[in-house]
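From the thread on structure requests for the teaching lab: each student submitted one protein with a one-line request. Submission from student K.M.:

"Model Glycosyltransferase involved in cell wall bisynthesis from Trichlorobacter thiogenes, tokens only."
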Amino acid sequence: MKVWIVNPYGNLPGEGWRDYRSTMLAHALEKAGHEAIWWVANFEHRTKQFRTTGFEVRDVSSKFKVHLVPSTAYSHNISLARIRFEKKFARNFVQLSQAYSSPDVLVIADPALFTSTDVVAYAKSAGCKLVVDILDLWPELFHLVLPRPLSWLGNILFAPLYRKRSWLLRQADGIVAVSKNYLNLALNAAPETPGNVFYLGINLDDFYKSLRNSNALANVELPIKTPEHSWVIYAGTLGINYDIRTLIEAARILKKTQCHVQLLVVGEGPLRTMITNVIRGEKLDNITYLGILPVDQLNALYKHCDIALSTYRGLSTVSMPVKAFDCLAAGLPVVNSLDKDWGELVADKQLGVQYAAGDADSLAQAIKLLHLDKELLQNMHNNLLMCAHTFDTGTIYPNYVIFIENIANNKV
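Reply posted by the TA:
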């Protein structure tokens, strides 16, 4: 069977991040004896840099190839330039695809508001099965950019985009999603379509190997940790969808109370400069900004941490974040603001403490609770490790492949 994955976003094998969903799916397809091509943009979303000047084919293996599709640049994530980028990617995909025999199944990553028209048209003309893989919720995310007094306009302004997503879902032969919440939303639009949840997951074998690397942090400048200290880690994007300003204010509160808590911030994004300026300007020495760490170093750092932060704004569309799987694998009790899949799991399995998004006092108190109650912290650590195996990519992606095989063979 030949499967195409059409997703302009994601880090490629060898780019330094953990394996992206498209890569994990392609490897699972390859192991099952199938051929996989991932059509991805030549412009990289995180770095805002071009990977190539034109179309390029990269052989990851004999059965897994990456096709880099020419696209345009954008500097802001929510912008007209990004819409142009997606439309250009989709048009070029269709044009370039004519040189190849059509696949049996095409997996289109959603959000696909500005790529779906061209990609669906190709799938219909090629006669291949179409699977929609829901990774995030657009246009829900766009509501975050509206000033609070105008938030009521969101459903009106974005109504055409909601209709566009519903149309895409109705074209699908199968729907998969990275969370139950996302899948339920999709099946409301296409109730007769077969669907399943395949979480992003984590490769536990790789994770535990990196924990055993005693030299991984040799060149990372870390603060001194005493037995009285708890290290609390935030690892992820430093952007508007995340409760970064509340995190900073909570650090101020914790410093005033002379609580022995050290916040470690790992990541990159639009709010990085704000964070570093606050640390320097206010001498906020209970926050250490470590920049971007390769995945092996980040995993090794988790071993030395006590608590993890899952801090998102109140209107966040995130349901089961990547960092959730890190917390599970590392056994790190979490201070969390999300509801949906992750919030429900944290509450049901006693994996951490909830705080109210946007409330610095609530965040500081939640951190302090886990810092002071070592017995609670240990119990949560044990609960996390027991849950981790449910989310191992070694199980998730072979099951994803079986779903695709069943769609291709009309067995669903």
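TA comment: The longest helix spans residues 80-97. The chain has two domains: 2-201+392-408, 205-391.
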